[in-house]
Fold this protein.
Amino acid sequence: MSYKITLIEGDGIGPSLVEATVKVIEATGVDIQWEKQYAGEDCMGKTGTPLPEETLNSIKKNKIALKGPLTTPVGKGFRSVNVQIRQKLRLFANLRPALSFSGVPGAYNDIDLVIIRENTEGLYCGVDYWVDEDESAGISQNIITRKSSERIVRFAFQYAKNKGRKKVTAVHKANILKCSSGLFLRVASEVAKDYPDIQFEDRIVDNMAMQLVKRPQEYDVIVTTNLFGDILSDLCAGLIGGLGLAPSGNIGEGIAVFEPVHGSAPKYRGKNKANPCANILSGALMLDYLGEDQASKKIFKAVANVIKKGKDVTYDLKEDRNDPSAVGTKEIADAIVKEIRSMK
Ligand SMILES: NC(=O)c1ccc[n+]([C@@H]2O[C@H](COP(=O)([O-])OP(=O)(O)OC[C@H]3O[C@@H](n4cnc5c(N)ncnc54)[C@H](O)[C@@H]3O)[C@@H](O)[C@H]2O)c1
């Protein structure tokens, strides 16, 4: 089968990571025609908009995109393009697996969990404003609806069922945020009754953060609202060895965009230094979504093999981050390609 996929290189380290990812995906032999589009800070500089209509239309048409990270100006400037893409295309589920790779220094070696984050509302719904002209107080509204809560919790249970996972944990702050987080918990408990074969439990988010640091092996599928999911998934990335290993998928009704969890790390732009694995593994998640599960598994295995050998890995996967034997973005991608070719 042949696929047409929208490709967005992104900002900062994005173009080098996306180049590495395309090389690895092509090594699996899956037939893909890439449709290159633009978005982000560089795009804003060139075209006057960080998210051209043409880019959105391309994703709507192809129903699938792979992207690198995009820069969002902090505390000023345009709204996050990532958030805009998720909202405009109604990519309501953000899938963020945290999987241990053997050989990563300082990381747990037995984590295999997935965070499923509601992607379109909560504190990211865009109701964010100053109370007065002096900007002396700000308000951000945390909007949680029954409809979106039910949709994301059902997605989490269905995902658990399809992937043979055993437990879903709903994470909330219903003790304090009784209306918003309380509604999410109530809906989660109701939906859980439709899946009697899957264990259900809930955790308050602060406790969850501590539990994840101490006993991450006990968790399987975690479902939560937007901000909690954002923070906990970075925490889990830290537990498996860093953001360089954390992939993600944003999934809606018949449409999906895959990207690494991390940002554009502007300080490494053009330096052939950043780890492309999170972007490459996002490509593997995309292949799994397309039903190309053999190709997807090959990429996961090839990444695992390269990391385990520990020779051709980037600085962030070395015991000493200043280890001069660390390789660059291009070299680790070449090692992954070589592993894939050796599997044929
Ligand atoms: N999905 C996205 O596009 C996305 C996600 C998060 C942040 N951002 C944006 O990225 C920009 C930078 O944000 P930030 O600095 O908070 O987060 P960041 O993820 O870019 O960087 C955090 C830390 O992790 C390191 N890092 C990140 N990716 C790495 C990789 N692949 N290999 C090795 N090290 C890596 C960075 O050097 C930095 O020390 C901001 O504009 C932010 O809005 C975009």
The mean pLDDT is 96. Residues 69-72, 82, 243-244, 259, 262-265, 268, 274-275, 278, 316 surround nicotinamide-adenine-dinucleotide (CB under 6 Å).
